[in-house]
Amino acid sequence: EPHASAVPCGRACARAPSALASRLPWEPQSTTAPEGAAVSQYQGQSMELPDPVRQRLGNFSRTVFSDSSRTGPEYNEGPDNEMVSSLALQMSLYFNTYFFPLWWVSSIMMLQMKYSILPDYYKFIVVTVIILITLIEAIRLYLGYMGNLQEKVPELAGFWLLSLLLQLPLILFLLFNEGLTNLPLEKAVHIIFTIFLTFQVVSAFLTLRKMVNQLATRFHLQDFDRLSVSRGDMRRVRSCIEEI
């Protein structure tokens, strides 16, 4: 009879690690994954930021955007079901995507019209700034879409940093530098671009704060679930030992 009671108990003990693994989705499920699955997983992550960059941006986000006044997770918020993506930020990114080609064409046309009257050093500076803005904008919009739609903190933090530290100062330089002799169309498109960037910096900051706090709450809840499962496993193992 003791052997008969030990069999279901042993099965319960054997099922405990699998139940624990199912409750921890952030941990790797298996170390011996098939080669095809590994290749598909690599292809799915090929367009993401490199791991060192993601780690640095994640640490930066937790330092800057976390709410230090929170003493613990708020369980009534429902963090697993709440969407933290910003609709206003996404609409701004959508219209920004269509506005940027108009800004680029207008800037090139105005530069061609006034190129002969600009000093040589301003010619070099303006061409360099337009090239930098074009390259930064492509990366910035991609990170904004990825970070906001898929709720990825490192990508959205990179979008916020590019907008605040690079793109906005470059546009303000083109807008307020009197030596560039801006034409009316240039001023108009620069002002619109500045409004886009200012709104995106503010909305991305608020979205990042909300996203980081939600992830912190989710981490605490998962840690609590893991401790609860571990205690249940210890009780089950203890009961198995007593029955044996």
UniProtKB/TrEMBL annotation:
Signal peptide: none annotated. Pfam families: Transmemb_17. It is found in: Cell projection, Cilium membrane. Its main location: membrane. GO terms for biological process: non-motile cilium assembly. It is a multi-pass membrane protein. The chain crosses the membrane at residues 93-115, 121-143, 155-176, 188-208. One of its GO terms (cellular component) is ciliary membrane. InterPro entries: Uncharacterised_TM-17. Keywords: Cell membrane, Cell projection, Cilium, Cilium biogenesis/degradation, Membrane, Transmembrane, Transmembrane helix. Transmembrane component of the tectonic-like complex, a complex localized at the transition zone of primary cilia and acting as a barrier that prevents diffusion of transmembrane proteins between the cilia and plasma membranes. Required for ciliogenesis and sonic hedgehog/SHH signaling. Belongs to the TMEM17 family. Part of the tectonic-like complex (also named B9 complex). This is Transmembrane protein 17.
